[in-house]
Structures
1.
Amino acid sequence: MNKLLVSAVAVGALVGVVVACNGNDGAVGAAGPGGANGAGTAGGNGTNGTNGVNGTNGEAGVQVIISALAKHGLEISPVTLNLAGLTGEQLEQVGQGSYLVNAVADCGTCHNSAGPPPLKFLGGGTQFPLGGTNYVTSRNLTPDAATGLKLTEAQFIEVFRTGKDFAITDGGADQALMVMPWEAFRWMSTADIKAIYAYLKVIPALTTTGIADAKPSAAPAPVPFTAQFTDGEKTRTLPPEVDGQGTPIPDPGNVLRGLAVDAVDNAKEILNLTPGEVGQYGRGAYLVNALADCSGCHTNPERAGGKVNFAQFMTGGRVFPTPPPLQPVLKTTRVMSANLLGPNGFFAGANLPIFLATITQGVHADDPPPQAPLGWPMPSRVFRNMVLSDLEAVYTYLHQVQGVPGRVDKVINPTAIYCASNADCNATVGPTCDTTNHECVSKTPCGSDSDCPVCQVCAGAGTKSCSLPTATLLAGCIAAGL
Ligand code: HEC
Ligand code: HEC
């Protein structure tokens, strides 16, 4: 048994917390001091909400009990929520949804509107090129009547389950969304999808015009949902969510669901674990595979033969060009996702404290100081909002599935560095600034491309050095990765 596993299993142990509301119309108070980082311990109560109109459905001063997780979810919402008139049950659902959106399933990186502050939370409008003249644009998920999310709850569930693009209204065949990571999200529990929907209904409405797609004519079709996990090394039946009478069957922390939607055949991984550790493993598997979509960025190629590419599961190698407006800020031009689970991957060496420091501080905590910040788009600023028990669960899961025999390994290229002048460059990243492309070049000597900043080419007569790729090579490198 692994000594690094944490024994305290807080998974699903949701401590009831009292949130004081002045009648059901009162807004929930501002964030109280976070108790988030104490596993299972509740944070201090938020300060009382601003006085609500006297509750129509409740008396002034009524106490609404919501779970610690939901309360934390409400606290980490980056926008003020319209909670007027919500019942305790609805408040619980919104809090759970906010937790999923703002701590685990990072919707914001794709769905926040680009541009200067203030944050246009989930306003959509970010364009994703699909090659050639094709592109799709992230949709406005806010409740704006004209330009926002218009799907019913049932349609929203269908989007998550099957990928169906409800914006295709020309009577043609159904098409699937192409950038939206529904292939991971489809394994969420129905309750979690509904919670996200409930949260999206109470965020501030934003008007975003001009959202349009130019999909290829042969866009993929939606995939029917069968309650069978068919995506991984082993096919499994999902645990039923309701019984024959339609009564919900509880699965605290979605542990059983996590064990079912695990991309790897987990028979060996959980064999020697205590029941408590299996609970953590299952919770971690759920968070990683159905919500956080770590594999979407850390597996390259992401899928193989219509399944998760488990032979290269989270061995890194996807290339992420830093969006030009962010380059001078982040000081990077291109980043390759890290090898997490290969024989030389992060989890082969990192213990729990290093993992926690990596996520909560957003730095390469496994490197000697000074530790560079994690490159874009690693969503550590979202994941750091997870409660400690969930971060521990993610660690337990990834630590256990590290080291599967036969999994390929990859040597990840160093990050390509943005520069304005030679002063921004050094021998490690290349001493010379290519001021046209704003990238440090000429690292010398190099033995092969893998010594060079990502997508640069190791070439030259005699002593070789790293140079910028041609436009064609660069496009190929970004598309293929490692
Ligand atoms: C990797 C980027 C990305 C992430 C992460 C992402 N989305 Fe999307 N989403 C998109 C894009 C782009 C579209 C529309 C075009 C497409 O994918 O074909 C879309 C479409 C949607 C739609 C369809 C809307 C409609 O009106 O038909 C919904 C609903 C949605 N996203 C919700 C979410 C939620 C909720 C999350 C977080 C849990 C999320 N998305 C995370 C990129 C993303
Ligand atoms: C949107 C893409 C994306 C998602 C989703 C994502 N990552 Fe990352 N991650 C990256 C990139 C890119 C890097 C490399 C950053 C760098 O080298 O500076 C990275 C780096 C890391 C590192 C640092 C490794 C090291 O060697 O220091 C860890 C640990 C990590 N990710 C874990 C995770 C986990 C766990 C998840 C899911 C809970 C996840 N990532 C989800 C893109 C992503």
2.
Amino acid sequence: MPTSSDLLLLRDKLRVFAEARDWDQFHSPKNLSMALMVEVAELMEHFQWLTEAQSVNLAEEKKRPVEEELADVLLYLVRISDKLGVDLLKAALDKLEKNAVKYPADLVRGSAKKYSEY
Ligand SMILES: [Mg+2]
């Protein structure tokens, strides 16, 4: 799990990367959220048409390409968080706490129902 300083390192490297290419002008939250969605789709493409079992036991030659799409997703998450002034790690930890309240373990254990279905 990334620590706050890991994410700050990524944030800073992305700033340098974008600045060196004069791409900051394109990095609006609108564009970045769309780019994030494209990367999520690229990740999903690797699992499209696989069975559940194939997706769990991913073929060795698929692991590296999947890893790269996961990295793309994280990079865009970090970049869009930076542009919006969001502390991504804090936001994720806060959301996890909120989800724990929404889904009490003793109530939902073993169920995939949505909180509104309880
Ligand atoms: Mg990609």
